[in-house]
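Task: complex structure prediction.
Instruction: return C-alpha cells for all chains below.
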Amino acid sequence: MQNETAVKKPHVVIVGAGFGGIRTARALAKNDVKITLIDKYNYHLFQPLLYQVATAGLSVDDIAYPVRAIFRDQKNVDFRLAEVSNVDFETKVVTMNTGQISYDYLVVAAGGMTNYFGMASMEKNGFGMKTLDESVEIRNHVLRMFELAAHEKDADKRRALLTFVIVGGGPTGVESAGALSELIYHVMVKEYHNMNFKEVRIMLVEASDKLLATMPEELRDITVETLIRKHVEVRMCVQVTEYDGERMSLKGGEVIPTYTVIWAAGVKANNLIDTLDVEQASMRRAIVNEYLQLPTRPEVFIIGDAAHCMQGERPLPMVAPVAMQQADATAKNIRNIIRGKELKKFVYKEMGNMATIGRNAAVVHMGKFKTHGFIAWAIWSFVHILRLIDFRNRAVVFVKWMWDYLVYERVVRIITRQ
Amino acid sequence: MQNETAVKKPHVVIVGAGFGGIRTARALAKNDVKITLIDKYNYHLFQPLLYQVATAGLSVDDIAYPVRAIFRDQKNVDFRLAEVSNVDFETKVVTMNTGQISYDYLVVAAGGMTNYFGMASMEKNGFGMKTLDESVEIRNHVLRMFELAAHEKDADKRRALLTFVIVGGGPTGVESAGALSELIYHVMVKEYHNMNFKEVRIMLVEASDKLLATMPEELRDITVETLIRKHVEVRMCVQVTEYDGERMSLKGGEVIPTYTVIWAAGVKANNLIDTLDVEQASMRRAIVNEYLQLPTRPEVFIIGDAAHCMQGERPLPMVAPVAMQQADATAKNIRNIIRGKELKKFVYKEMGNMATIGRNAAVVHMGKFKTHGFIAWAIWSFVHILRLIDFRNRAVVFVKWMWDYLVYERVVRIITRQ
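Output:
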C-alpha cells in the first residue's frame, strides 16, 4: 500500500509564485504529493513594497527572494522558470513556453496586472507599478529627471521635468506619493545644491471624491492632511483623459506638462485568464465556486487576483491577504479530496486595512480599532517586516529601515541601464 | 582681494567618478576652487567587488553609491551626468553629450575598459566585467543556465549549459572562479534537487604559466591548489582563439562547448583617450610626465587607468591604489600651481597585493609579509570593508557578509529583465 501511493503520488501544479502560489505550495509540501511551481520569474516578489523600490528606499533584492531558496528543504517541490500559455482542462495538461506538464490538481494563482481601462496613451507613456522591472524603471526615470533639471536653462522645461504625477488614490498611490515626497524633500534637497525646490510639484490625482476609499472618513481626512503637509498636491474628482509623454490632459480641458505619470489606478487579472476556457467577471477574473474551484472542474482551483470570488454581495478585493487565505483553504481542500473527505467552503476573514504615508505617518483600521500617526506607522512596519521575514528570514531590510529612519538617507539612488 | 579671488575661483573639471576622480574632488573640495565632476553614471562604482555582483554575493546597491551623496556637504562640487566626447585643450573646453563646459584645470580620470585584444568573436559573445550592467548580465545569465539545465533532457546540451569558463588568471579571474565555485557548490547544490552536480564544470584559462603573476611563487602555488580544491579546472599556457557563443576554441584545436565565457584577460584605457590629441602608449593610455601632466599642457592632469605613467623602467599597473595615490598627488599639485609653489614629482608607494579565492581563502603579499588562508581572508575583508565604508558609511555589506559566512547563503540570486 505504501509503495502504491508512492508510485501514484498526486501531482499538484501551481501557476504563479506570488503570495497565493507560494503559500499553497508551502502548505501542501508537508503532504505526500509532488508539487511543480511555475513562474516566469525566478523570484517571489513582495509587491506591497514595490513603491519603495520606485522611490529609492529599498533595493531590488530586498523585496525579491529566489523561489528555490524558499523550497530548499522541500524536495517534493520542483520549480519551473516558464511562462504558461494555456491549459487543456480535458487532458489536464499545462502548456509552457518551454514544454508541457500534466497535473492531477491545478492551482491557478497567476496574479494581477495593471489595468489602464483601455487608455492606450497612458499604457504607452505612463508607468505601471506591478513588476520589479517597472519599479526600477520609475526609480531610474525619476532620478534622471532631477539630473536633467539640474542643468536645464529653460524654466518651463525644468518645471515639467520636476512635475511628478501619480494617478490613483488607493494604497499604492498614497504610499508612492508619500515616499516620493520624502525622497525629494528630505534627501534630494541636500544634494542638488543649485536647484530651487519650489519648482518641484508632486500631484496625486483621484477620480472619485475619496482617497483610501475603504477606510473610515476620519482616517481618509487625516491621509489627505498628511499628504498636503508633505507638499503633495491632492486632486480629487479629477479624471485623466490622455497622456502623450509630455502633457497630461484632464477631463474639462486642463493640461499639465509633465514627463512622469505613474499609473496606480487599477488592476485586472493576469492575461493568462483570457486564454483559458473559463467564465469571467469584472476585471477579467475567472468565476470560481465557494470552494474556489472552477465550477465545472473540481480539480482546478483559482485563487488571488485571478479569481472572482463572491463574499456576500460583493467580490473580494485584489489584495494579498485574500490570496493568502485562499491559498490555505485550497491546500486544505486538495488534501480533503485526496483523502476522500468533504470540502470546506471558503470564508474570508477581514484583517483590516492599512497604508503608510511616510516616516511616522500611517493609517490603520482593523474592525473597531482605528489609529494614525506614529503608532500606525509602527504597526505597519511591524506587520510588513514580519511578512518579509517569513520569506527572507533575514534582517537586512530592518537594518536599512532603521538607518533611513535615523539619518533620512536613501542609498538606492543609482540609475542603472540608461 | 578676498572678493577678487571669490569672483575668479579657479574651475577644476574632473572627468570620471571612479577611485581617481572622486578622490581628487574630495581632496580639492576643501580649497577655494569650484569643482565640476562629470560621469556618465550617477554613481561611484566599487569595481574590485564587481565579481561579487556577478556571482550573486552582493546587490548592485552594495557596490554602487550615488556621487551626489558623496559630495552632499561640499557645496563647491557640482555633478554632471554626462558623457565626455572631446576636449579642446586650446580653448580649454570640455564637450559633453549635454553641452559644453570650460575649465582652468582639467583632471582626466576616465578609467579603463575591457581589452579583448581585437578578438571580435569574444567581444560579441563573451562577457566583460568592468561595468555594473555587465556584472548583472553575468549573474542573470549564470542563473538562467541553471534553470535551463534543470529541465534539459539532452545530456550534451546540459553539460554545455553547465560549463562556465573564465579567461584570465589575474585577480579578477581568480576571484570570480572562486566565488562562482562557492555559489554553485555551496548554494545551488541545495536547491536543484534533481540535478547532477558532477556535470558542472568551472574552468579558469590563463595564457601564461602563472596565476596572479605579480605574487611570489609560494602564494601562486597555493592559489592554484585552493582553486583545484574548489573544483575549478585550472588551465595554464592555454590561449583562446575564438568563441561563437556555443563553442570556445583553443590554440591547438581543442574545442569546449559552453554558453558562458567571462573575459577577465585584459584592460585598456577608456576610449575617450583615443579622441584626445595626446600621445599614447601601451593599452592606449595617455603618456604623462612625472607630475602626471600632459607634457605640453601643464593645466591638464591624467590619472589612473587612463594614464601611462613610468615608474623606474615600467609603467604603473592599472589598479585602484595607483589611481588613488595619483589623485592625492594631483590635488596637491593643482594647489601648488594655484599658490605659485613648485610642483612635486609623483612617486608610487607599493601597497602590496591581495586576492581572495573564497570563504576563508585568500593570498596577501605586502613587502616581505606573505600570508594565505583564513588570516589573509580576514585582512582582505577588513581592507575592502574599510574602503567601502569610506564611500558608503554604512554597515549593510558587513551584515550581508557575516550572514553569508554563517549560513552559506546567497540571497541575490534573482534574474532581472529576462
